[in-house]
Amino acid sequence: MHTISPIGTIRTPYKEKFAIPRQPNLAPTVTTELHLVGEANTEASVRELKQFSHLWLLFLFDQNIESGWKPTVRPPRLGGNERVGVFASRSTFRPNAIGMSAVELIDVELQQGQVVIKLGNVDLVDGTPIIDIKPYIPYSDSIPDAIGGYADSAPNPVDVHFSAAAEAVLQQHQDGRYRKQALSEILAQDPRPAYKKGKPDPKTYAVSLFEWNVSFIATDNCIAVQNIAPLAQSD
Ligand code: SAH
C-alpha cells in the first residue's frame, strides 16, 4: 500500500458541494488559488510550470470518502434516473475517491515562502486536498474527434436574474462586477437535483458562495436570485 498525502489546498468561492459546477470550465469567470503545502511547497517544485497554459489537477473527493461507493451510479446528465457503471461516469463516489480536472493556469507566485498557483475555475469545494499537478499537454491530452458518450456537449445554461436587493449588495462590493458574473455563470448551471426538472418547484434554495449566503428560486429555464446576505460566522 502506498500512502497519498496532499501537495496543496485549493481556495475557491464554493463553500459547500451544492451549486458547484459539475465540471471545471462551465463558469469561466471564476478564479481560484492553489496553495502548496509541506515538502511540495518549494519554488523548485514549480520551476518552469508557467510555460504551460493549462494543468491537470488530481484531488480527493474528501467530503465523500466516508460514504463509500457503488458499482453503478445515476449521472445528472441522464436525468438522474438511468444507471451506468461508476467507471463510465465522473461520479464523486469512487473506489479511491480521486478526481481530476483540467484547468487554466493564470500565474505562479511566491508569497513570503508560500507557493501560490493562480488558476481559472475549478469544480471543487474550498479546501479540497490536491494530490498532484501535471502540465496539460495538448498534442496528447486534447483529442478533437473524441466521442463524449452521454455527456457529448455542455449542459444548456438557464437565465439568471437578480432581485433589486441582490443587485444592491453586488453593487456595494468592490468586486461586485466580477461576483455578479461569477454568480450568473455558476447558477446558470441549474444546481438543483436532476429530478426537479420538468416539475413545478416552490422551494427557496440557499447556497454558500464567497462569504455569502445566496438564496434563489428556480424554474426549468430561469433562476431568480432573491437575496445575498453575509454567512453566519461559525466560530
Ligand atoms: N472534474 C472532476 C470532478 C467532477 S464532479 C472529475 O471529473 O473527476 C464535480 C463535483 O464534485 C462538484 O460539482 C461537487 O459537487 C463535487 N465536489 C467538489 N469538491 C468535492 C470534495 N472535496 N469532496 C466531495 N465532492 C466534491
Question: What is the count of structural domains?
Answer: 2
Bound molecules: S-adenosyl-L-homocysteine
* CATH topology descriptor of the largest domain: Elongation Factor Tu (Ef-tu), domain 3
Whole-number average pLDDT?
A: 96
Strand order of the largest sheet: 1-2-7-6-3-8
Please report the distance between the alpha carbons of the first and last residues: 38 Å
Uncertain runs: none
Q: How helical, in percent, are the residues?
A: 10-25%
Structure description:
With 235 residues, the chain is mostly beta strands. The protein has three helices and twelve strands, in the order E-E-E-E-E-E-E-E-H-E-H-H-E-E-E. Strand 11 and strand 12 form a beta hairpin. The protein binds S-adenosyl-L-homocysteine.
Q: Which terms summarize this structure?
A:
single chain; 235 residues; mainly beta; Elongation Factor Tu (Ef-tu), domain 3; YaeB-like fold; 6-stranded antiparallel barrel; 3 helices; 11% helix; binds S-adenosyl-L-homocysteine; UPF0066_cons_site; YaeB-like_sf
Topology:
Layout: E1 8-11, E2 32-36, E3 54-60, E4 72-73, E5 84-85, E6 98-111, E7 114-119, E8 129-135, H1 138-141, E9 159-162, H2 164-172, H3 176-187, E10 205-209, E11 212-219, E12 222-230
Parallel strand pairs: 9-12
Antiparallel strand pairs: 1-2, 1-8, 2-7, 3-6, 3-8, 4-5, 6-7, 10-11, 11-12
